[in-house]
Amino acid sequence: MLPLGTAAPAFRLPDTAGRPVALDDFKDAPALVVIFMCNHCPSVKHLRDGLAQFARDYLPRGVG
Fold it and tell me: Residues 60, 29: contact at Cβ < 8 Å?
């Protein structure tokens, strides 16, 4: 676990559609939220609606 405020290391990972996403893709965003989770795990499926709402609330504000 990294301490809060630690700069994110450079990364390039596939998104849920298999497209590559890199930290540099969000260099102009005022903030970036990165969540590493298994999207088909039964114990986290209950988060899906809340995360979708979070995205709808914050994407218009420029959060990546």
Answer: no
- Angle at alpha carbon of residue 26, lines to 35 and 14, rounded to 5°: 50
**Sequence letter at residue 47:** L
pLDDT of residue 54: 93
Enumerate residues 6+ apart whose C-beta is below 8 A from 35. Answer: 51
Residue 61, SS3 per DSSP: helix
- pLDDT tens digits along 34-45: 887 887 888 788
Classify 60 as helix, strand or coil. Answer: helix
Helix (H) or strand (E) holding 48: helix 48-58
pLDDT at 22: 96
Q: Residue 8 has what DSSP assignment?
A: P
